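Listing S7. Sequence submitted for prediction.
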Amino acid sequence: MMGSMKFWFRLAVLSSCVIGAWAQPAAPKAEAMPKQSALDAVLFYQILLGELNTRQGSPGSGFSIMLDAARKTRDPALFQRAVDIALQARSGDAALQAAQTWKKEIPSAIEASRYVLQILLALNRIEEAGKALTVSIHELSLEQQSAAIASVPRLFGVVQDKTLASGVVEKALAQALTQSQTSASAWTTIGRMRRDAGQITAAVEASVKGHAADPKAP
């Protein structure tokens, strides 16, 4: 029970961090001809059955049915619903399965990457979360990456092992350190992670490098 409560608390904290940091303004879309719905009578019944199972106290069955429907249609909304069902049931492993399947089926789905990152951190799978962080940042434009990178210390603040978190984040930001647009933000973030891990001398060194990369930065 305690493990489940910790997972749920971590996820609530992480969600508030990621939503703000990785939020993107909706791009204007040109009007398009309406597409034929992917739902047929059988699939509609399947989705309905999944919802009924979930609402009637069988979230495991509802999750499986919904995830199967998502695979068949490759519909992001159904994948997200499957993730949500698992999260509401406080099943981190099932939520991760759904998010990873979503990403596998729709590689361009940025939202799926965010879910994977949040869930891995909530499950305390820190090294895997570092790899997911790399993917999430690289999916953003260079203009968006600095703000996302700046939010990383708050995102990884739920991790108990601060030294591990610092090393994982530094590895995840390796490419950002080599890019002029993101180098200052990356070094500043690394400095904050090192400071939180009690590595004061190394934190100061990172701060100096961040200032050298962008002297105008605060």
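Caption to Listing S7: primary sequence and predicted structure tokens for the chain studied. Confidence is low (pLDDT under 50) at residues 24-36. The first helix runs from residue 2 to 21.
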